[in-house]
Amino acid sequence: MSGYARPELLAETDWLAERLDDPSLRIVDCDEWPAHQRAHIPGAAGLRVHHYLKDPDNPEHVMPPSLFEQLMGELGIGNDTLVVAYDAFGGLYAARLWWALDYYGHTKAKVLNGGWLKWLAEGRPVTNRIPEVAPARFQARPGSDCLCTLDHLLGSIGREDAVIWDVRTRAEHTGEDPRQNKYGGRIPGAVHLEWRDLITGDVKVWKAAEELRGMLEGLGITPEKEVITQ
Predict the structure, then answer these.
(1) Is residue 131 part of a domain?
(2) CA nearest 116: which of 179, 31, 55, 200?
(3) Is residue 202 part of a domain?
(4) Mean pLDDT, 10 residues at a time, the chain of 230 residues
(5) CATH number at residue 157
(6) Residue at 213 is within a domain
(7) Quick one: CA torsion of 189, 193, 30, 70, rounded to 10 degrees?
(8) Which one in 124, 160, 171, 201 has a CA-CA gap of 20 to 30 Å to 143?
(9) Is the Cβ–Cβ distance between 110 and 83 less than 8 Å?
(10) Cα angle 203-121-130, degrees, rounded to a multiple of 5
């Protein structure tokens, strides 16, 4: 993990393998529930709800505090619990849980580097036993600055000290694939680098810090700028 600015946000598989019985840690399998039922890391709790953690009444937004508190409590996550999230999709869904936790004031969370695929490739233990999870009390503390409002985004277009980074596919960026709206396209001035390009193609671990830094700098994404992701 040499060279990363925040290496503590990632967990390596060997580190996790040594802590499977740690009562202060909660592993969360962020893949679909049927996949969790087939096999998962021992002790991992599964998400029975959609892995994007959306508000059922307003799916463009994250769960409201009350629903998020209920879900975290059901997963055995309290405010002092260290969470390690993983999936089989390069961290897409695990990072969503990490982001939602951060948004609601819980900073003790990591994403498993390489996720389920790396865990399997290394021959580490798996199970299909659904663990008994003792409920916990989680108190959401909204207020994190990790969420960008529409007004803030509009005010950031064209700012020299800000960069809008489109992490979707190239086809979505160009408008060839409208996906989520009938118009397609991108936010004016947004640079493009798909999130999949940040990880390796085999077991989907993050690329080396130096390589990532070079890729981002080439797009004008540098530490002194405010970065808004799309």
Answers:
(1) no
(2) 31
(3) yes
(4) 88 98 96 96 92 86 94 97 97 95 96 98 97 95 86 95 96 85 85 96 92 96 95
(5) 3.40.250.10
(6) yes
(7) -20
(8) 160
(9) yes
(10) 105
Q: How many structural domains are present in the chain?
A: 2
**Cα gap 130→100, rounded to integer Å:** 24
Q: Which residue has the tokens 């953690």?
A: 53
Question: What's the pLDDT score for residue 23?
Answer: 94
Would the CA dihedral through 110, 210, 191, 195 be positive or negative? negative
- Could you give the CA distance from residue 143 to residue 106 in angstroms, rounded to a whole number? 11
* 185 lies in the same domain as 92: no
Q: Please give the structure tokens belonging to residue 21.
A: 């019985």
> In this structure, how many other beta carbons lie within 10 angstroms of the beta carbon of residue 92?
17
In total, the chain counts a number of residues equal to: 230
Q: Compute φ and ψ for 220, nearest 5 degrees.
A: 85, 15
Measure CA of the first residue to CA of the last residue in the chain; give whole Å: 26
Domain that holds residue 156: 150-229
The tokens for 133 are: 């999870």
d(CA 68, CA 62): 9
Bridge-based pairing of strands 54-55 and 45-46 is unpaired
Three-state DSSP at 8 gives: helix
Q: What is the model's pLDDT at position 97? A: 96
The residue to which tokens 């695929």 are assigned:
117
Longest dimension (CA), the chain: 52
